[in-house]
Amino acid sequence: MKVTGKITKVLDTQKGTSAAGKDWQKLSFILETTEDYNNLYCFEVFGDEKVEQFLKYNKVGQDVDVSFNVQTNEYKGKYYTSLQSWKIFKAEAGEIALEVAQEEADDLPF
User: Fold this and answer.
1) What does the buried/exposed string (b/e) look like for 65-99 if buried means 16 or more CB atoms within 10 Å of the residue's CB?
2) pLDDT surpassing 90 at residue 96
3) Whole-number average pLDDT of the chain
4) Is the CB of residue 43 less than 8 Å from the CB of residue 68?
5) CATH class of the domain at 2-105
6) Range in 23-32, 47-56, 86-95 with the lowest mean pLDDT
7) DSSP, res 13
């Protein structure tokens, strides 16, 4: 799945140790789209390298395209759903401008 929007908030990085003894870290960020309804998404970035890369290349206020998977886990009879982002790129404003220019060119009166 893919969604485009603006990063409005980057939450604190969470760190811990798994039952197998491996250290892990996870970062969550909020993305807001221009849709009228259901326009807020909270994505997770999981893993040391991915968290580091996210913080290096992404800032609050930046427009991005996010590719993600929806993941649901069961724990003690309750279900928890998260949006696991796996690719984040700066949104291409040039593509949108090109589409608008083509639409205007097609509006000839003859």
Assistant:
1) ebebeeeeeeeeeeeeebbebeebeeeeeeeeeee
2) no
3) 86
4) yes
5) mainly beta
6) 86-95
7) P
Which residues are CB-contacts of 5 (< 8 A; sequence separation ≥ 6)? 31, 32, 33, 34, 39, 41, 63, 64, 66
**What amino acid occupies position 82?**
S
pLDDT digits 0-9 by tens, 8-44:
999 999 999 988 999 999 999 999 999 999 899 999 9
The arithmetic mean of pLDDT across residues 69-79, rounded, is 96
In 1-110, the DSSP E strands lie at 2-10, 14-17, 23-32, 40-46, 63-75, 78-90
Between the two ends of the chain, the Cα-to-Cα distance in Å is: 41
